[in-house]
Amino acid sequence: MRGGAFLLCLVIAGSALAEPPRTSLRPVARGDSVGRALVGVQPEVVRPVQVVPSPQTYGAPVEAAPKKRWRLFGALRPKQRSPQIEKQGRAKAAARAAGAVCSDPGIQGVAIGRVPAAIAGCGVDEAVRVSSISGVALSSHAVMDCITAKSFKHWVDNGLKPAVKTRGGGVARIRVAAHYACRTRNNQPGARISEHGRGRAIDISGFTLRDGSKISVLTGWRTKRDSAILRRMHAAACGPFGTVLGPDSNRYHADHFHFDTARYRSGSYCR
User: Fold this and answer.
1) Which residue has the higher pLDDT, 84 or 217?
2) Which residues pair with 87 in a beta bridge?
């Protein structure tokens, strides 16, 4: 009897749980007094406050004030020369222009015009007598044409000076062994006219430096002290000149360099 009653209670409880609620669980409406109190109230907006830490907070160094910047072009602007220095500069430029030949202030000398031929094949149409090249004096004023003078200057600027560099203070003088001379090659009877006889050649036997020391082709060509310098000079002449001869070419050039502006189809002849 008791078991049946217990089962009946379970059936009644299960049916009660299965039925949906007859009323929803809606919230109870507020009173009018509370609703009227909330009308017109704006919610407060909380904005985040940005905190900028000071440099001292974390031990960071305080930024220094910007340094004053120099004006580049103002700092590099050359100082104005005095009137006296400008006058001296104009005087030197005028002197160089007055002594320039072959339309090149770096070639100083005088124009001497036509040099007549003593024998057939010699002579120069528009000769110049050169006294210095690019500030380097010649021991003897050399007669040549302008093509040879310009080739000579090219060699002084790009061969002679770079070879010597600053040794002895630089090159002061070129020792000229021969220039214009109406003669045959190597002064040999029956030989062809030398380029010297046409104003196209210059022979150089050595150099004097600004401290008075000397470099000799004869004594220096095979010495440890001067050989490298002389050989650089010799090599640099090959190109600006058509013929370049030195101590290794033959016995006639044991003591000097021979440079001339003869041109060959095969290119420069250099020995």
Assistant:
1) 217
2) none
- Residue carrying structure tokens 């190109």: 239
Of 225, 203, 224, whose CA–CA distance to 214 is shortest? 225
**Residues whose CB is less than 8 angstroms from the CB of residue 190 and which lie 6 or more positions away in sequence, other chains included:** 184
CATH assignment at residue 156: 3.30.1380
Neighbours of 182 (CB within 10 A): 20
Q: Could you report the per-residue pLDDT of 141-159, keeping only the tens digit for each?
A: 999 999 999 999 999 999 9
Considering the domain boundaries, does residue 41 fall inside one?
no
Report the DSSP pairing between strands 257-260 and 243-245. Answer: antiparallel
Residue 10: pLDDT band with limits 50, 70, 90: very low
Contact 166, 226 (CB under 8 A): no
Q: Output the six-digit token pair for 250.
A: 């033959």
Contact 238, 134 (CB under 8 A): no
- Count: domains in the chain: 1
Dihedral of the CA atoms 253, 257, 260, 266 (nearest 10)? 80
User: Would you say residue 66 lies in a domain?
Assistant: no
Please state, in angstroms and rounded to a whole number, the distance separating the CA atoms of residues 89 and 142.
Answer: 28
Per the structure, the complete domain to which residue 218 belongs is given by 145-270
Look up residue 127 and give its DSSP letter. Answer: E
Q: 193-213: buried (b, 16+ CB within 10 Å) or exposed (e) per residue?
A: bbbbbbbbbbbbbbbbbeeee
Amino acid at residue number 243: T
Quote the pTM value.
0.66
Please provide the size of the chain in residues: 271
Whether 203 and 218 have beta carbons less than 8 Å apart is answered as no
In a domain, 102, yes or no: no
In a domain, 169, yes or no: yes
